[in-house]
Amino acid sequence: MKPPLLAFNKKGIYCAVANVYLDPWRPVEKAIISHGHADHSRYGHKKYITHHTNVPIIKHRLGEIEVTGKDWGETFTINGVKFSLHPAGHIIGSSQIRVEYKGEVWVFTGDYKTEDDGVAVPYEVVKCNSFITECTFGLPAFKWVPQKEVMTDINEWWQQNKQDGRASILFGYSLGKAQRLLKHLDPCIGKIYTHGAIEKMTEVIRPLMNFPETTLITRDTKKDELKGNIILAPPSAQGTPWLKKMVPYVTASASGWMTFRGARRRRAIDRGFVLSDHCDWEGLISSIKATGCEKVICTHGYTDIFSRYLIEQGYDARTEETQYEGEIGELEAKTEQTEAVENLK
Asked: In the CATH scheme, what is the code of domain 7-142+278-344?
């Protein structure tokens, strides 16, 4: 039996014929990178290949690296293996990686979502024989409402807090979620302030996208300036002395995990908005079906549950261990996953 075109080893997802890794988690000679999140684009590789809009993002995060940018659908060949990048819809610059050799086609999704968020290039169906999919939210309990409804709720929440004389602190990841929120916040309500991590990343992306004006919070920012306005901050800022300047404030988090009340309670968040940069249950299933694939490899998330479902539907499905974390850090994810499974009982 011939070896698979893509195989999982201790360094990452490996194409032996081309001697190339996809999103490796240990240093390698040549890496094709799906997107800029830290669990998929790591430091230490000698050569990086990624979509050109992701180049400034990973350079901002990793420093001066040797990186080549590619266009959507541009084919590049390494030792007879054809590679191309296709929109994943996850965050700006996120790609699916198509790999073709001797008529066999594999697609590695990285992270992806099917809803057009107005920031990332929308997800594109890529036909293949084998499909490597994340399962971050691979349970029927996860069903997203349209982004327009969620953003209406967020803007109404901000407006109410302004009327109550309080600052609104909205937590979201500095790359991806923060820009998605920023794109759809209503600046007519008030000013949009940012944590330094979000401001720096947004400035990297701003030449690629029209965003509302933001104001960086500094030591010189006065408490009265923040009252009634909204502050975008990364989850790591929660519970830190940095928040003292915002008093009185109300907090909220935008995440797929806000589906469960327990997640909001554990994080001491006043309000949770269900907004994810990953597929929900139906999004995963419809995406897999649309590819026409026969084989599915499930990574990071509810791999066992989701792969069993796929097997029942007639797919040749299995799981593989990776060092990708999905929407939240691994330790926190385990807590959320435990609750999600309990909700199904």
From this structure: 3.60.15.10
